[in-house]
Amino acid sequence: MKNKSVFFNGIAAGLPIGLGYFAVAFSLGIVARKASLTPLQGFIASFLNLASAGEYALFTSIEQSVTYIEVAVITFVVNARYLLMSCALSQRFSEDTPFFHRFFVAFGITDEIFGVSIAQKGSLNPFYNYGAMLIAVPLWSIGTSLGIIAGNLLPEMVVSSLSVALYGMFIAIIIPSAKKNMTIALAVLVSFALSWGFSILPYIKELSSGNRTIILTVVISAALAYFKPVNEENPDSAD
Question: Which residues contact residue 55 at a Cβ distance below 8 angstroms, ignoring those fewer than 6 apart?
Fold first, then answer.
């Protein structure tokens, strides 16, 4: 009975998350359509890659016909934060939690699901995550498919306009954080400048966009981790 109650609590938490995911995934579907993915392919891609930044990197890499290795590496790099989230969340399970529960909960970790899960008091019940995933994951995947379908039906001008919405989403993500933390603001500005520089520098500009993104992501994140490590007592600031 306890698991059933926790499961429905997870569903309640997952509903607003799923509705937000649907809107974002619809915009991602427009990008997937530009990469010539079918609605079924978009659904599968979203179901297996529950990350807006990761999917954007995936779809744009496919559109630019980069190699399989580049697609795998850039998706891994962009989604690497989920390894840390999984490690943090694993500490919240009771010691007798079976491996298969840990496995399926790890599969469904997103930024928002991690946030509501880590906020739970006491040991984490995996059925809470299952409830949240039951709503959020299908809406995320369906939103991508419908975005592709809409992209196939709507005029090209409308499709191009809708694709801009995804850039607006990313701006909405980085601006509040950048306003609160100068380190993040600096990272954003440096990434913009280096991304432009990489597109015009000899030899480097000959690299595929996928490889350039991988290099920039690793170099900038490693440099900031070294020079501006996160203050463990206050994660919103840096030492």
Answer: 28, 32, 45, 46, 49, 144
> What average pLDDT score do residues 59-73 get?
86
More confident call, 215 vs 101: 101
Q: Write the pLDDT tens digit of every residue in 35-56.
A: 889 999 999 999 998 888 888 8
Structure tokens at 46: 């979203």
Is the distance from CB of 174 to CB of 57 less than 8 angstroms? no
Q: How far apart, in whole angstroms, are the C-alpha atoms of residue 177 and residue 220?
A: 17
C-alpha closest to that of 32 among 15, 49, 18, 14: 49
Residue 107 has pLDDT above 80, yes or no: yes
Exposed, middle or buried: residue 146 (CB in 10 Å: 0-12, 13-18, 19+)? middle
Q: Are 117 and 129 in contact (CB under 8 A)?
A: yes
Task: Kindly report the length of the chain.
Answer: 239
